[in-house]
Amino acid sequence: MLSKTIVLWSILTCLFLLPLTAITAQPVIYKNSGNLMQIGSHLELYTDKDNKLSIDSVMHKPFVHSTQDVPNLQITPYTQWARFQINNQSATHLLRLEVEYPIIDDITLYEILPDGKIKSTRLGEFTAYRNRGYDHQNYQFALDIPIGETRLFYLRVKAGEQLQLPVYLGTPETIYEKNNKRELMFGIYVGVILAMACYNLFISISTRDNSYLIYVSYIICVGMTQITLQGYSFRFLYPNSPWLAMHATVLVPILNGLTAVTFIQYFLSTKVNFPLGHKLLNIVLALYILCFIPTFLDKYDYAQILVQIDAFLASVMAFVVAWRISMKGISAARFFLLAWSIFLISIFIFVLRNFNVLPYNNFTYYALQISSGIEVLLLSFALAHKINVFKAEKEESQRMALAASQENERLVREQNIILEAKVKDRTEDLQATNLELNNALHNLKEAQSQLVEKEKMASLGQLTAGIAHEINNPINFVTSNIKPLKLDIADLQELLNRYDGLQTSQDIPKALTEIQQFKREIDIHYIHEEISSLIKGIEDGATRTAEIVKGLRTFSRLDESEVKSIDIHEGLDSTLVLLRNSIPSYVNISKEYGSLPKIECYAGKINQVFMNIFSNALNAIKSKKEHHNEFISIKTELQSQFAVITIKDSGIGMSESVKEKIFDPFFTTKDVGEGTGLGLSIVFSIIEKHKGKIIVNSAPGEGAEFIIYLPLDISNHLS
């Protein structure tokens, strides 16, 4: 019993450890050497999710039998393995295995030889085209299977895009015959694409219509998409660039989508005919551009999925937009709708084939090529129809323009007669009105002159009162010193008289004693000091009076009505001297004079500018309810060919609305009767006359800053 149990366990252990290569599907029996077999349904499949398994390791993995003639492995980042056996019952031992899917990145065929050795052949887009050893875009493997023998094969594939395995088995002749038919069909397709591209390029050059140029780009991208998917681009265009071969299956469809959507927007004028559709198509454009990100990050699987989703969305969106525009009666949209419907059907077929809904066969293989060729032809007809429509519209518009021109000519002739009479009447009215306006202008000029003179008189009155008060102080100082000076002089004269009486005095000692007594009575030392002090006070009063007179003369410049070279600093100082009586004690005047040359100007008018600005600054400071650290600062500097005078105060400031109007005539913020509103208007006109400029910076509660720019040489600016 024990021996039977041991035998049973030995058998089970052997069965368990038996290599899985022995448990495979039925082998492919190849009998007729003139027959081409599609062996996809004989394959067994396994997915290596680690992408690390070797041929020795994968032999022991559980494979799953394929139920499709062309296994569709979807878009996956994993390595796929296929296992199959071939039993050669034909009349030749030289067979050929072809995988008709040229965009696979890496493909390796492993053949298990009778002696247990493994023969491998590696192909794919990862290496240059010349390394294949044969001249065809499909992956072909030469098999040498003796007649009557069976061989086991493993196929390892990896692709970043949609992965399908259309595997054919036959002789080199049958494979060659199949490929010749494929290439003939594709050659016809490429010929149609090139013919339409050249045709529309010629029309684009002739008509200078951008929609044709965009359509040519779209046609080329459509053709390039098919050329890339069929492997011809790697074979003929960039055989030495594996990177481009691996990325082109994403890059070319992206460009195809971008040109297609742009062409739709131009051809259907979606921005005008359907604005919402135009915005939706812009979103599709943005989605296509986003596909570049995973592409250049080498995320082929994600990029392929995004591109196919975008292609589906773009196809549906284009159909909806064209349908909505065609409902408005636009014939171009109807042509487009017909062409796009055919292409849309092929897109559906292509996408459904890639997602394993439809099988891989000749119909699904050629559907996209045939439909895109038909679409190109129909869209070319649509563009030609568009030219005819534009031509008809142009002729109609020309006819209508001619009719309108003739009607206008008739109306012009009729209106000319009426207009001549009206012009005569209006001319007489205008002459009368012009006379009235001239009289009104003369009156306004007189009124303006009177107002300006009134403002000058008001300023003069204020100035005169200040000058009178300012002169009165030193004059009073002089007059108040005269009387005590006379008394002191009288005492000195009495003292001198007593000294003169010594000559006739009989008792000189007694007389000298009396003189000494008199000197003590009058305090001779105090008299000397008082006389010096009184004379100094009179001298100061006279000097102050002379200074005021000089300041008045400098300010008025009565002898300088023409352009003169003056010192700006003298004008500022003289103005401050005249305003000294109006400056409160709590206002600090600070000066920061720069190095300025003499400038040419109308001196009296410039001093009037300073007077008005200083007066406004003092009024603004006095208007404040409380006074703390009040100031008026004066700064001068030289900038290029301009003397710059900056006068800043700590007054109440101005709002933006007030600041915009301060130079307007008659605008004032003072109470009624307190100002004419012409002060700053005169300032602006004087500076404008000097070809200078004035800038005002102010804000409520932050004071005001007036920046005056005066040219150094006014004669150059006046010329």
Summed up, what is this model?
By secondary structure, the chain is α+β, with helices and mostly antiparallel strands. The chain has three domains: 2-170, Sandwich (Immunoglobulin-like), CATH 2.60.40; 180-387; 565-573 and 583-718, Histidine kinase-like ATPase, C-terminal domain (Heat Shock Protein 90), CATH 3.30.565.10. Helix content is 59%, strand content 14%.
Q: How many structurally independent domains?
A: 3
H/I helix tally: 19
Shape: elongated
Kindly, what is the distance between the CA atoms of the first and last residues, rounded to a whole number of angstroms? 135 Å
Average pLDDT metric: 79
Report the sheet with the most strands, covering strand number, pairing sense and barrel closure. 7 strands, mixed
